[in-house]
Known about the structure:
Blueprint: E1 2-4, H1 31-34, H2 42-50, H3 58-62, E2 67-73, H4 85-95, E3 101-108, E4 111-120, H5 143-148, E5 153-158, H6 160-169, E6 177-182, H7 191-201, E7 208-213, E8 218-223, E9 228-232, H8 248-251, E10 263-266, E11 274-278, H9 281-289, E12 294-297, E13 301-302, H10 306-319, H11 333-343, E14 346-347, H12 348-369, H13 374-377, H14 380-386
Helix pairs in contact: 10-12, 12-14
Amino acid sequence: MTLTTPDFAAPAPRGLCTDCGVSRMKDPTACGTACQFIKPDYPALEAQVHGRPSGAADEVFFGVTQAMYRAAMNLPAEGAQWTGITTGLAQDLLERGRVDAVLCMVPDDNDRWAPRPAIITEPAEMAQARGMRMGYAPLLALLEPAVSAGHKRIAVIGIPCQIYALRALEAKLGLERLYVIGTPCSDNTTTENFHGFLGRLTDAPNTVTYLEFRADYHVELRFEDGSQELIPFLKLPLSDLPRDFFPLTCRTCVDYTNRLADITVGYMAGEGDQWLIVRNARGAEMLDGLGDTVQLSAPGTRGKRAGAVKGFIENTRLAAGGLPLRRMPNWLRPLMAWLQPRIGPRGMEFAKARLEMKAAETILHLRREEPAKMKNMVPAHVWDLSKPYGLSPEPGETKDT
């Protein structure tokens, strides 16, 4: 059966909060030690989860990495955002009896785009969790109901701010086994804001069944009648969006790749397929469970990212807290939209570009809006990614200054 979200007390008001669910648990004060936006300690939790902290080279970008793949299911799952690897991993864990329950998101009964936390115990019901949701939902508030129902072996599918809090609380949960399937940060916004965005993309927003920001610099829309539309990034109506379309939490994300998951399933280096980061033995076990139903290959890399990252940083500075828009004449946009997927960074270079952009964005927005939080909130790997672009700690921005 599937247990949907019980009635929880409203979360306590907080300045930087994505409502991961901890503030709705029996001890809401746990937020003080579990929240990613207060005083994160990635080296300590990486050592706890993976057996060691992340190292140098590419692990500065991606976190602890045992293996990395470009991947796709041989038979794409109907209704999946990509080919269904994320829900496929969880379904396999249920089928093999490795877990009793999966905590994840399903669509709200009244809005296909709104997320609703659910406890899923039957493998076939993982199909309900396929596809993208946009908005906030207190996933971790289901931990206590799951344990109370007798589920001591669970899997959790979550985004980075949820998974950081989960790992910080893991030792206190009394679980026999925990598998964590992470997706990268989704640059979240409210469901209401998302509907406004859809309304700016198409005249028929209520018929859109699928939206994805693809690695080929296009947004893909699919409609109820089976039609499809591709919109180049440079033609998106971003200038029409409110300045706070993305909240400060998502503009200051310090963990875009879900560094504390056992396996991360994303798209950035997939070049049209999915992108997997296996981080430890549990992640490898989950991927092995899919067997020959999944195709695996090495990620590729093309193009140069430095120019794109520098341009993004300058636009972020100029935006002064708003969306970092690149201004150009309308006549030039079609040409640049044609060139971008052909000469821009792709594969691993695309992923690294996006991570450097997020790191720079975190520093610039926190300096402007919450400078007192920088000392405790910005981990070393964010400074490492920003350093090549002239963004280094100023006095008082690190624990050592």
